[in-house]
Amino acid sequence: MRILHLGDVMGRAGRTAISETLPRLRNEWRLDFVVVNGENCTNGMGLSGDHARLLLDAGADCLTLGDHAFDQKDMMQFIEREPRIIRPLNYAKTAPGRGFRLFAAPGGRKVLVAQVLGQVFMKRAFDDPFSAIEQVLRAHPLGGQAQAVIVDMHCEATSEKMAMGHFCDGRASLVVGTHTHVPTADAQILPGGTGYLTDAGMCGDYNSVIGMDKAEPMRRFVTGMGKERFSPATGPATLSGIFVETDDRTGKAKDLRMVRVGGRLEQAAP
């Protein structure tokens, strides 16, 4: 199965890049399944229902969220009506929506997508992500009920993301980190056959400070004082993420490539 996972969509620039580019990529790369992290799609904070529809209409099969899952209040109701959006498993026991779902893919195949939030350096104390994902992986063995399993690990700490990759090795097709908006260069297939990348980066304008217009973050770093609200940068966006091709029999990764399309970081296609 040919799967694409794109990192955090950042503001209008990221939305535009998705809507203008993803339909072409689905066709040219013969993608079977696409996951997009929509966590910062709406003004850099959360995802609205209207913007969720835009990403889904552009070709995303599943949208993941993160610690800003419900910053846009309409998502509280929208996620209950739209099964293609999942929020973190360990967000809160009373949160609407679900933290994992089994999706249909071409040829009668099934793809499990799950998301967890890390605990290290995060602003809120979330439940243990390892025990949360353990229950899901046990109930959906790779190569059995699910022909592919994708885990979106949304957190700050590189070490925690790496630990999750090894924890899921041999039981997931792909473990990919999101949240920091900076793409890493460590794409690899782990010993047990799980594709891994510490952070997919963002789909946004990289002439920025992690997707935000440079002026206000730089002012705060230099002076220690804020003057204005942060606002997403609006220049040309780069789609950043990871491409994985899996073995339909085992569900394990057999090819893995980093993706940078458009904007400032473009590289060769898979």
Structure, explained:
This protein has 270 residues and is of the alpha/beta class. It has one domain: Metallo-dependent phosphatases (Purple Acid Phosphatase, chain A, domain 2, 4-Layer Sandwich), CATH 3.60.21. The chain is built from 6 helices and 14 strands. The strands form 3 sheets. It has a 6-stranded mixed beta sheet. A 6-stranded mixed beta sheet has the order 6-7-8-9-11-10, with helices on one face. Strands 2-12 form a two-stranded parallel ribbon. α5 links the parallel β8 and β9. α1 packs parallel to α2. The longest helix has 18 residues. The chain is globular and about 55 Å long.
Blueprint of the fold:
Blueprint: E1 2-6, E2 8-9, H1 11-28, E3 33-37, H2 49-58, E4 62-64, H3 75-81, E5 85-86, E6 100-104, E7 110-117, H4 129-139, E8 148-154, H5 158-168, E9 174-178, E10 188-189, E11 195-197, E12 202-203, H6 215-223, E13 239-246, E14 253-261
